[in-house]
Design goal:
4 copies of one chain form a homotetramer.
Chain A: H1 2-11, H2 20-39, H3 46-73, H4 77-81, H5 84-91, H6 94-99, H7 108-112, H8 127-137, H9 139-164, H10 175-186, H11 199-231, H12 235-248
Helix pairs in contact in A: 1-3, 2-3, 8-11, 9-10, 9-11
Keywords (chains A, B, C, D): Ion channel, Ion transport, Membrane, Potassium, Potassium channel, Potassium transport, Transmembrane, Transmembrane helix, Transport, Voltage-gated channel
Main location (chains A, B, C, D): membrane
Subcellular location (chains A, B, C, D): Membrane
């Protein structure tokens, strides 16, 4: 009973304490992510670096404690240890332990593995479920328009390569390079590192932009629509309509 | 009775004068905001600077008069003085009074506090109400997708940092710096101050852009949808539908 | 009768010739606009400049002919001469006549007045009507959100000015200058001529971008929605619905 | 019977093998497109260039085999040879054969004609059909708003030319050059190669951007809406509505 209560506390489903402990753990994860980001800033005052290091040790101890608690309080410790979340929980401690070895500190990538902790945010979250369900809902559409978008990007890249390669041999040096231009243009980000300068290239760009934006925008629109769909943002409108109708016929109905 | 009429005049709810006085006050606020903006322009002819100063003094007098009138005509002067709008009304005069002290003129921030006047535009406005209602309506969705977007931004920033840090140590010097790149890219603003140049960074960007735009666009889409919802822009379409249905059943119904 | 037929020919409502003559005139207007654009290109070969000049004279003659025909064939010549389209028809000839004076050729603005001809494209067009009806439909919403957007732009400009003025005194030299940054950012165009470089400015930008894009996007969304509304792009969907309903009740109904 | 089975294999409609062979051919086409893109990269190691060449020869043999098989197995070989797909199948081999001649290798455009193979991806694809149907559905709307957008672009280009030509005679040297600015701005790509610097030009841009984005966005929105329409992403919403209506009449119906 008591061991069960501890797991409930960590999962945020405890009767009395609700999700307070889980929220605190999630806040720690977010703070840890911020600390990891700040560590990479150059020229931090030594006192601040020291503070970040101490904070990391503190977080490390908390997560080790969480892992040990979950392991000992679980009904099936071995099953937990090899489950998805068990491995994630372990992995969110291990790289930090390695980090305490000064000679490993320098390897940036190892330090960033600590970010696997972010995955723990999704343990009790419904957002990932929603996203997953939304993507499942529109998988077929996404594949079709993903392929169409990829073709559009490829054809645009080849076109701009033909038009601009001679005028800007460095900027549009190859088709893969031109693909980068196509991605930056069709997402309308437009960094400005690559752009056509020949008349032909500009006319070609104008045409493919107006056609292509309509096609390339569809995958994004599909995800957005599916997300809104699975979340019933359209609730209020629906409610109004329901009220109108149910008022007259069936006031107990819930949609 | 008479004192009540003055408050009504200022609020724009007077029987005879309608919202003429309130409109004039609102116009003054907008003009004041424009004047404050123009003051910051370098190399203005002295005559123009003088004019702006005189205009500021004029506006100051109007707002002092409004404050005094509201204070003396209110049924509960003390209650008004400590109410939200009472404090706003006072604050929109005070910084300007300070402004008359030449030695304070230099402090730019003090001068800009005058912009608190803009808040007075919302006293009788329905736009803020609508915005507020729209945001309340979708608070839950906004939080979920705000968090998802933040995670997406963070993960993209870490990814681009890993890919680009060695190639562009100045541009992508740290993860917080890379976060700025992520914000500018996922909002599709794309200033062009930071962009990936390595092949790995560009492929990574291409992938996260197509996935991320779908996620990051949702909060904006939610606000837009909620605003349109609270405003019934969908009116005409709904009407048509109603007509279709009501034609057959209940021709007197109005939605 | 015959004079009436000429007007019908020019308006594109003639029984036998349909809108062939009107289409030809419209094509001439479009060609004239292209010619006017090409004239401004530097370093054109003299033969081409000569050709454009000859084409201009030809177009001029056609439009003079059209004006004279409309004037003589109209039932009420004087009424026509002072009507909106009468004045437009006259104006589309006059600047070109002036153009034939070599000494006036240099004044670019005079030459561009010829573009008033573009207005003639809308004489029989329904597109302008639709646009007008769409805008009328959503006038109220547009004003409210136009004002909100303007406030958002202004407040963002003031904010970025406070954050960036000291770091980039040239780029963000004044609030009006910062307003230009706000316009380019909130429309997500992001030219990259102005962007924040301080940490404070970037954090501020990140926040206002996510909030502001939701607000500033609304006026555009409203116009788009209204345009689609007045055009029944939703036709197919509606048809489906109609079929569903009418199938059961009234198969002859057409919406 | 056997010859028929081969065509079915190639088309992906074979009973037992399903679309396995067709999928393999499609994968080859995609790989071929990637290879063609990689060939243009400078400074590839010779071994890799050699590999790409061998791969090209392999693909060439496959496509020649496919063409011969289709030709000999078709019921009407001559009819096939002169059909659309017959010519595409032939064309996807021919340029590659030419490529084997070393002296033709240098002509980039000839080598890129091999990309005609991409068209073969659409032989059995439904995506092109959908796109085609979607475009047919909204042809009328697209033309009207395409013309309106073109006018908007043209007028904006003329305006910015008038405002900026004197300040930036190189950047805004002519109206066609300014048109390029208009395209990059109204698609919100904003490369940053051209932008207004005069106060007048910026105010003009601010106004036309807010008006124009609403108009120029419509063609893209129409294509997106039509694509989603032909794909019934709106399915769930429609279902709900159906239920409402049928509730009153036929509660057992499920759509």
């Amino acid at each position: 009973m008591r061991r069960h209560a501890i797991v409930e506390l960590l999962d945020g489903t405890h009767e009395r304490w609700g999700n307070n402990v889980a929220l605190a753990l999630h806040s720690l994860i977010v703070l840890s992510a911020i600390a990891i980001a700040l560590e990479t800033v150059n020229g931090l005052p030594p006192i601040f670096t020291r503070l970040l290091y101490d904070f990391e040790v503190f977080i490390l101890l908390v997560f080790v404690a969480e892992y040990v608690l979950r392991l000992t309080c679980s009904k099936h410790p071995v099953k937990y240890a090899f489950s998805f979340w068990g491995i994630i929980d372990l992995m969110s401690c291990l790289p930090a332990i390695a980090l305490l070895q000064p000679q490993w500190q320098v390897v940036r990538t190892i330090r960033l593995i600590r970010l696997v902790r972010l995955l723990k945010l999704f343990r009790t979250s419904v957002a990932l479920d929603r996203l997953g369900r939304a993507l499942t809902l529109v998988k077929g559409e996404l594949i079709v328009f993903g392929v169409l978008s990829a073709l559009m990007l490829y054809v645009s890249a080849v076109g701009i390569y033909l038009f601009e390669h001679d005028a800007q041999p460095d900027a549009f040096s190859s088709i893969p390079q031109s693909l980068w231009w196509a991605v930056a243009s069709f997402t309308t980000v437009g960094y400005g590192d690559l752009f056509p300068i020949t008349t032909g290239g500009r006319i070609f760009t104008s045409f493919v932009l107006f056609i292509g934006l309509g096609i390339v925008a569809v995958p994004s629109a599909i995800i957005t629509a599916a997300l809104l769909e699975t979340q019933n943002t359209v609730k209020p409108r629906k409610n109004k309509r329901n009220t109108e109708i149910t008022k007259k016929e069936d006031p107990n109905e819930t949609s």
